[in-house]
């Protein structure tokens, strides 16, 4: 047995899978980054030129929150355009669409996954594949919803959002590309960790309906917020009039600075609900999304407060009345 596979089996003996460990690590990393950033706000200003501080801020910031960061030229050389965000969703549409196709073939044509995919899932879960595994409606629905979400975000990036000359770090870019690949594989891992019985239709339960309802509501909330942000830079004709940042108003912006990040969290919670709230790995994904989006929202919120004296003080960064 290879060392990597043995390590995975050791994790399973403790009730953990490799995906559990991976998402736990990412969630803890962003929680730590959030805490470190909050602490850094109280440090003397002389530390703002410290190379370690600048590197840390360079890795957690992107877009408009990065513009006032004083960076060396070698750090700026590692920037890529923020408008490349659409690459993430393009990869997600293609990759997760492929995984969905494999899943549908396994259901309706009773064909096994390709050997490479079976091997990857064996490693990620530590649970070997068996012919007795029953396809789960929850897994199929989450795959479909993930594809819908990725396609919508791709269309918004290409045809709705108005990107300025903001940048993201190349590390963030590579991470974003890998993120949706691992995310899709995590969805497929649900079949190894759960126990589906009966036909797909007979598995239909109330939490599938509730999860889809929350997904639709959160998606509409996110789309509305993105449209409102885009309109801050376009005129009545829809043409771009400015790339300057303005204070968003109306809708959920009256409660939080970044409702599109809150909606992202709700979308992932809705997918956990579709899983019946029983898939531990996905709850760890939700934790990761919570902490990563909280950090991004906090940075945006601080920028708005520092830039606009009249910015509404009752608004929170991310979660209404809480954070």
Q: How would you sum up the global shape? A: globular
| Record field, number of beta strands | 2
Order of helices and strands: HHHHEHHHEHHHH
**Gyration radius from CA atoms, angstroms:** 21 Å
Q: State the strand order across the main sheet.
A: 1-2
Give the end-to-end Cα distance, rounded to a whole number of Å: 47 Å
Features:
323 residues; globular; 2 strands; mainly alpha
Short description:
This protein has helices at 3-13, 18-40, 51-60, 73-76, 85-108, 115-125, 137-159, 170-193, 206-231, 259-274, 280-307; strands at residues 79-81, 167-169. The protein is mainly alpha-helical and 323 residues long. Helix 7 (137-159) runs antiparallel to helix 8.
Please, could you describe this protein's structure?
By secondary structure, the protein is mainly α. Helices cover 62% and strands 2% of the residues. It has eleven helices and two strands, in the order ααααβαααβαααα. It has a two-stranded antiparallel ribbon with strand order 1-2. The chain starts with a helix and ends in a 16-residue tail after the last helix. The relative contact order is 0.13. The N terminus is likely disordered.
List the helices and strands and how they pair.
Blueprint: H1 3-13, H2 18-40, H3 51-60, H4 73-76, E1 79-81, H5 85-108, H6 115-125, H7 137-159, E2 167-169, H8 170-193, H9 206-231, H10 259-274, H11 280-307
Antiparallel strand pairs: 1-2
Helix pairs in contact: 1-6, 2-11, 5-7, 5-8, 6-8, 7-8, 7-9, 9-10, 10-11
């Amino acid at each position: 047995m290879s060392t990597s596979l043995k390590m995975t089996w050791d994790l399973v003996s403790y009730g953990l899978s490799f995906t559990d460990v991976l998402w736990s690590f990412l969630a803890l990393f962003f929680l730590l980054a959030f805490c470190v950033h909050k602490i850094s706000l109280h440090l003397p200003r002389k530390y703002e030129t410290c190379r370690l501080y600048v590197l840390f801020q360079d890795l957690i910031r992107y877009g408009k929150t990065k513009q006032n960061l004083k960076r060396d030229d070698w750090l700026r050389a590692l920037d890529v355009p923020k408008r490349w965000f659409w690459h993430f969703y393009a990869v997600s549409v293609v990759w997760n669409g492929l995984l969905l196709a494999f899943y549908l073939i396994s259901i309706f044509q009773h064909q096994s996954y390709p050997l490479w995919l079976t091997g990857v899932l064996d490693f990620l879960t530590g649970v070997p594949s068996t012919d007795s595994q029953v396809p789960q409606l929850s897994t199929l629905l989450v795959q479909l919803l993930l594809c819908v979400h990725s396609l919508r975000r791709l269309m918004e990036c290409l045809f709705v959002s108005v990107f300025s000359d903001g940048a993201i770090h190349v590390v963030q870019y590579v991470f974003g590309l890998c993120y949706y690949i691992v995310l899709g594989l995590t969805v497929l891992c649900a079949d190894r960790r759960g126990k589906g019985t009966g036909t797909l239709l007979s598995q239909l339960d109330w939490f599938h309906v509730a999860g889809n309802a929350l997904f639709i509501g959160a998606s509409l909330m996110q789309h509305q917020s993105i449209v409102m942000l885009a309109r801050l830079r376009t005129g009545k004709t829809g043409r771009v009039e400015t790339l300057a940042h303005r204070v968003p108003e109306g809708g959920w912006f009256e409660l939080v600075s970044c409702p599109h990040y809150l909606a992202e969290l709700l979308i992932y919670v809705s997918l956990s609900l579709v899983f019946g709230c029983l898939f531990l790995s996905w709850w760890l994904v939700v934790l990761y999304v919570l902490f990563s989006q909280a950090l991004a929202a906090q940075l945006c919120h601080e920028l708005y407060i520092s830039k606009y004296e009249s910015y509404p003080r009752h608004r929170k960064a991310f979660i209404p009345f809480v954070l």
